[in-house]
Amino acid sequence: MQNPQLVNRLILLTLLIGLLSLSYQILSFFISPVLWAAILAYVTWPMYRRLRERLNQRHNLSATIMILGFILVIGVPVMIGLFILQQEARMLYGHLQIQLLSGKFSIPDLVTKLPLIGSQIQELIAELNADPDQIVVQMREWIQSHLAYGKQIVNEVSRNLARLSFALLTLFFMYRDGDRVLVQVRAALHKLLDTRSEGYLQAIGQTTQAVVYGIGLTALAQAMLAGIGYWVAGAPSPILLTLMTFVIALIPFGTPFAWGAVSIWLFSQGQTIPALGLAAWGVFVISWIDNIIRPMVISGATKVPFILIMFGVLGGLTAFGMIGLFIGPVILAVLLAVWREWLAQEGVVEQAETDAAWAEQDQNR
Predict the structure, then answer these.
(1) Are the CB atoms for 99 and 106 separated by under 8 Å?
(2) How big is the CA angle at 80 (ends 76 and 85), to the nearest 5 degrees?
(3) How many whole angstroms separate alpha carbon 133 and alpha carbon 9?
(4) pLDDT tens for residues 258-314?
(5) How many CB atoms lie within 10 A of CB 7?
(6) DSSP readout, 164-223?
(7) All residues at 6 or more sequence positions from 187 whose CB lies less than 8 Å from its CB, including other chains
(8) Per residue in 320-333, pLDDT tens?
(9) For the chain, which residues score pLDDT lower than 50?
(10) Is the CB of residue 275 less than 8 Å from the CB of residue 263?
């Protein structure tokens, strides 16, 4: 009697695994947009709830207004950035074309004096100036032979735009039906994990909110301060550089590469004082923001060691791309919650003692 039951269970398990495998293949493209939508919905849920209350619980209208707000917040800076980038690229192309055709192409002495590659760069410049027409022809042939890379870039941009569209569409339904979805998720986790599910949900929620706010506020503050530095130092296109700095600042320890590159460029153009001033501004002001806001917001709110958060951010970025900036810390925070709960259940250390110890360390930072 037991053998038929075992066979039936194995058949059901096989069918379930096959169904999950097929579902994954169907939905794999949408996993990243859904995760982005879930993160944005959770972080902005208090704002959506207040808006819904003012609109007399009109779910569809409230969700539509929130989506339109996201489109404005995301779309306007992107359009401004693309417009400025187009103008800058056009000016750079015209400037390079004039230099190439005149046979007077040159670069700063700082580059030509670099060890190992400086002499090779000088020889290349000499060839450019000796026969500019031939070089232009070769450049055109090289561009035509590498048009496939351009197609790949266009395809990747199209895929990302499609993901963004699906993320906004999913976000609309998460706003509208978020309460019912949360009830179902809580019920499912309660069946699997019993009362422990509340602790894990709390760890996921606190970590997600803290990481989003910590990374977002840090990147915004650093980008604004860097933009002030670019404008004072006289760097070209400070608005575009500020937008690029914001994107780079989302990655931990990435901001110095942004303002550092601008400082080096200013120095290569002979603007020594602005370059040194921007470098000093970056070291003593911009970089310190990362050391203040990120640990205070992330580690202070979650009671998770900042080193673990940093590993989660960097490891998640490596494993999952940009979405890993938020998934990585959440996974490690849940793992830490399981670890602390296991220690408390085994009687090794009380949960209250561990929480108090982490709180004391956060206050002493």
Answers:
(1) yes
(2) 145
(3) 75
(4) 898 888 888 877 788 888 899 899 988 888 777 666 666 666 655 677 777 778 878
(5) 10
(6) HHHHHHHHHHHHHHHHHHHHHHHHHHHHHHTTHHHHHHHHHHHHHHHHHHHHHHHHHHHH
(7) none
(8) 877 887 788 878 87
(9) 1, 363
(10) yes
Residue 354 φ then ψ, to 5°: -65, -45
Other Cβ atoms closer than 10 A to 234: 12
51 Cβ partners below 8 Å, 6+ apart?
62, 65, 66
Give the pLDDT confidence score for residue 228 in this predicted structure.
92
Looking at residue 317, its amino acid is: L
CB 234 within 8 A of CB 274: yes
Length of the chain: 365
Residues 193-209 as b/e (b if ≥16 CB within 10 A, e otherwise) read eeeebebbbebbbbbbb
Amino acid (one-letter) located at 9: R
- Beta-carbon count within 10 A of 4 CB: 8
At 220, the amino acid letter reads L
Give pTM, 2 decimals.
0.65
